[in-house]
Design goal:
single chain, mainly alpha, 6 helices
Length: about 130
């Protein structure tokens, strides 16, 4: 029994925000405030956390993202399941798209959604494309 339990690895679940999410958020927001592109090498603090990805799915439904993106397949908004994304599929680019919005329809949610929730949404959206 002890050998079996020692072999089980459970993921870390962050219920109140990943420790690095605020640092990553500050880095992306500083780039956006300076009208620069977000950092290319910045990772999503929730990329490997199934609980956070599932929470991102819940937020996707709560904020009616499916109303435009149709569960990721597109519609009025761009599809999220395809291989090429107009504004980039890197975590920092997804954060920027959700936080400040994009021209021609994507509103910015940065004033209504916490940075932690944006990272969770970005993790879920990334999982739709198979990038996770």
């Amino acid at each position: 029994l002890a050998v079996t339990l020692a072999g089980c690895e459970r993921e870390t679940r962050y219920f109140s925000g990943a420790p690095s999410s605020s640092a990553a958020s500050r880095e992306v927001r500083a780039a956006l405030d300076a009208s620069r592109a977000p950092p290319r090498d910045l990772g999503n603090p929730y990329a490997d956390n199934a609980y956070a990805v599932n929470d991102g799915k819940r937020l996707f439904e709560w904020f009616n993202c499916a109303g435009c993106h149709s569960q990721g397949g597109g519609g009025m908004g761009v599809p999220l399941m395809d291989a090429q994304w107009r504004y980039g599929a890197r975590p920092a680019q997804l954060f920027a798209s959700i936080a400040v919005g994009r021209p021609n329809g994507m509103p910015g949610f940065g004033g209504r959604v916490t940075d932690d929730q944006i990272w969770r949404l970005a993790a879920y959206v990334s999982s739709l494309s198979g990038e996770l």
